[in-house]
Design goal:
The structure is a homodimer of 255-residue chains.
Chain A lengths: L5 E5 L7 H10 L4 E7 L18 E3 L9 E4 L3 H12 L6 E8 L6 H4 L1 H11 L4 E6 L12 H14 L5 E7 L7 E3 L5 E4 L2 E5 L5 E5 L2 E4 L8 H6 L3 E7 L5 H6 L7
Parallel strand pairs in A: 1-2, 1-5, 2-4, 5-6, 6-7, 8-13
Antiparallel strand pairs in A: 3-4, 7-13, 9-12, 10-11
Amino acid sequence: MAARPFILLSNDDGIAARGLQALALHLSSFADICVVAPDVGRSGMSQAVTSALPLRVTPYSAAGTDFPQYSVSGTPADCVKLALHSILHRRPDMVVAGINHGSNASVNVLYSGTMGAALEGCIAGYPSIGFSLVNRTLDADLNPYLPWCERIVRATLRYGLPYGVALNVNLPRREVQGIKLCRQTLGRWSNEFDQRQDPWGRDYFWLTGTFENLEPTAEDTDDAALRNSYIAIVPTKVDLTDTEMLHQMQGWTWE
Amino acid sequence: MAARPFILLSNDDGIAARGLQALALHLSSFADICVVAPDVGRSGMSQAVTSALPLRVTPYSAAGTDFPQYSVSGTPADCVKLALHSILHRRPDMVVAGINHGSNASVNVLYSGTMGAALEGCIAGYPSIGFSLVNRTLDADLNPYLPWCERIVRATLRYGLPYGVALNVNLPRREVQGIKLCRQTLGRWSNEFDQRQDPWGRDYFWLTGTFENLEPTAEDTDDAALRNSYIAIVPTKVDLTDTEMLHQMQGWTWE
C-alpha cells in the first residue's frame, strides 16, 4: 500500500448525501479519495445491477472537496463495478460505502444498496466496508461518528479481510459506547403496506412496515449492540451456502 | 397442509415470461396456484424493494390457465411482499420463483431478482425455491425440466425447510443427468462494460462481462454440477454472518 491509501467511496442515498460527503472529506485527511455514487437516491436497491439501460457518468463537484467525484445513472453496485472497470486509473486499497442515512442491521443488509456496493467491492477482491447510521434524519450530526469510522477503516487496512467477506458497520443513534463484533440479527419486516386510493378510486400501495426482531433476548446480535449504543460490526459474506442444511439434505429422496 | 398445496409463484423476467407461465401451469396439476409477478422484465434486481414510488396491482390472464394472476409495478421482492400482505387470502404452503431464463448459480445468486423473490418468501417464513435455467434463449424447450421441478417442489413440501434457508435450483442447459446438492461457486464477473459513444459524441456504458469461476477444479460447486448436466441445488441462507471471521476479528484493536 502507498503511504496514503487510495479509497473508492460510494453510497445509495445519492452523491449529494451528507453521509457520503462527510465521510469522504474526513477520510481525505489521510487517504486519496475517489467518489463514484448514484446521481440520485437509490435506497433499497440491494445488489441490483442495470442491464436494460446504458449507464452515464458525470463529473461532480462539492464545495470544500478537491478529490475527484463522479455521479452514475445507476445502482450502487453499478457504481462500484463501473468505477473499478472504467473510471479509476489505479486499483484502490479499499471500497467504502456510506455513511448511509438509516440502519442496515439485521435483515436490512439484504435490501441495502449501501451493502450492495460494499459486497460488490468485496467480490472484486478489495477490502470493503459499508457504514450506516441508525438515524434516517438527513441532517443528523455526523461529526461524532467520523473518528470511529476512521478507526474502523484504518484497522481494516491494517489487518485486511479475506476474499468474500465485507464488513457491515452500523452506528448507533446515541453516544457511541464502543465497538462490538456481532452476528446478523434474525429479523423481518411486518405490516408492510399502506393501502390508499388515488383521486380516481384506484388502489395503490406504499411500502412501510415495522421491524420485528425474531430473537429479542439474544445479546450477540447487531440489533442488541445498537440498542446498547455500541457500533455493530458484522463480518458479512458473499457465499450464501448453508453448509449444515447441505449435509441434512443428503438424506432427501426426489421421487 | 391441505390435500392440494397452495403455491405462490413469482419471477423477475415479468409475468408474461414463458418460464413462469410453464411452471405455474405444470404445478397447477397438483397445487392451487396464485401468480404475482412484475409487470415487465426486472432481471438483475437482486432483493431490491421500492419505497420511493407506490405500487400498483393489475389482474392478469394468460390463455390456458384458470388460476389467479396479478402483475405488480415493482421488483420481484415487492411482488412477494405485496402478495403475502395484501393479495393472497390465505397463507401459501410455498413460494416459488422462476423458471428464470438464465443462470443464477455462483455469484449470480446475489444479483438475481428470482432469488430475491425466493429469499423474500423465506424471510416471511415460507419454504421457498428459486428455479433458473442455464439458457437465456426465451424460447428454450422447458418441457424436459418441468417434471424435475415438480419432484423438487414435492420433496421440499414433504421435508420442509428451516427458517432462513431457501433453495437456489439451477437447471443445466443439456439433458438432465440427475440432482446434485452443491455449495455456491466462488466466482465473479470481469471485463464488465462495453463503452460506446452516442451520436453526439458522449460516452455511455453497457453492462456485459465474462463469468470467472475462481475455483474451476472444485467438484462440489453448483457451477461444476451444471457443467456435468446435473441440476444444482444450493441451500441458501439469509444470515450473511461469517462466523469464522467473527472469531478471528476478536483479536483486532481499533486504535
